[in-house]
Amino acid sequence: MLGWLILIAVIIIILGLSIRIVPQGSAYVVERLGRYQATWNSGPHLLVPFIDTVRRRVLVKEQVADFAPQPVITKDNVTMQIDSVVYFKVIDPELYAYGVENPIMAMENLTATTLRNIIGDMELDETLTSRERINGIMLSTVDAATDPWGIRCTRVEVKSITPPAAIRDAMEKQMKAEREKRAAILTAEGQKQSMILTAEGKKESAVLNAEAEKQATILAAEARKEAEIREAEGKAEAIRQVQQATADGIKMIKDAGADETVIRLRSLEALEKVGDGNATKIIVPSDIANLTGTLTALKESVSDQPAQN
C-alpha cells in the first residue's frame, strides 16, 4: 500500500514538472538534450521531464530600452552628452535566444556607435536642430542591424542633448541678445505703426474738417441766396401792390367820372411830392399855365359861393 502511494506521488510530481503554461505576451524557447526543439507561445504545453528544458523565457510585447547618456563629438569638435531611447519588439524568440549573447547590451552599443557616427558628421547648431533627422537615421540603421537577432526596432528617440556648460552659457547669452533684438524691433515697429496711424488720423481729421467747412460754406451761401430771393420777392410784391393800388385808384377815378380838372389836380399833387424830395431838377409840365388858370378859377368859384348865399 505504501508503495502505491509513493508511485502515485512520483507520477503527480512528474506531471507537475511536465505541464507548462506560457502566459500571454511571452514565448518559451525549448531545447531537447541541449538542442533547439521548439518555441512555445501562450497557453499550456507538455514538457518531457529530464529531456526537454526551457532555454529562455522571452517577452514578445513591445519594450523600451532607456540607455545611459553617451559622449559624442560633433564635426566642430564639441563634446556633448546625448541620451537616447529605443522602442523594440522581439519577433523571433529563437534568433533572440541564439543570435547574440546579450541582445540589450548589443543594441545599446550599436545605438551608441551609430549615434557617434551621425553626430560626427554634423556641427553643433545642426545637431541641436536636427533631432528628427537623427532619429530617422538611427532607426533605419539599428533596425537593419538587429534583424539577425530577432528584434524589430519600432522607434528611436533622442531624449536629450546636453552641450558643455561653456557652450550653454554662450547659447544663453546669444538667445538673450536675440530676444532683446526682437524686442527692440517690435518696439520700433510699434512706434512706426503708431506714427503712421496718428498721421492717418490727422489726415482724416483734416479732410473731415475741410469737408465740414465746405458744407458750412455751401449752406451759408444757400441761406444768403434764399434770403435775397425772399427779399426780392418781398420787394416785387410791394411794387406789385403799389402798382395795383395805383391802378385801382385810377380805375376808381375813371369809374367816378372825374373831369379833366380833377386829373390835373392829381398831377399837381404828384408834382408837389416830387418837389418835397432831394431832386436837383424839376420837370414842369407844358400845360402848367393852364393848370394855374384852372386853380385860379376854382379859387374864385369858392370865394363867390358865400357871397351868393
Question: Can you put this structure into words, describing what you see?
Answer:
- The chain is built from eight helices and nine strands.
- By secondary structure, it is an alpha+beta fold.
- Strands 6, 7, 8 and 9 form a four-stranded antiparallel β-sheet that branches. A three-stranded antiparallel β-sheet has the order 3-2-5. A two-stranded antiparallel ribbon has the order 1-4.
- Helix 3 (103-120) packs across helix 5.
- It starts with a helix and ends with a helix.
- 10% of the residues are buried.
Index terms:
alpha+beta, 8 helices, four-stranded antiparallel beta sheet, three-stranded antiparallel beta sheet, 309 residues, 9 strands, 62% helix
Give a brief description.
The chain is of the alpha+beta class and 309 residues long. It is built from 8 helices and 9 strands.
Q: What low-confidence regions span 5 or more consecutive residues with pLDDT below 50?
A: 305-309
Q: Give the strand content.
A: 15-25%
| SS-derived structural category | alpha+beta
Average of per-residue pLDDT values: 79
Major sheet description: 4 strands, antiparallel
Please give the radius of gyration in angstroms: 65 Å
Which percent range fits the helix content? Answer: 55-70%
Beta strand count: 9
Outline type: elongated
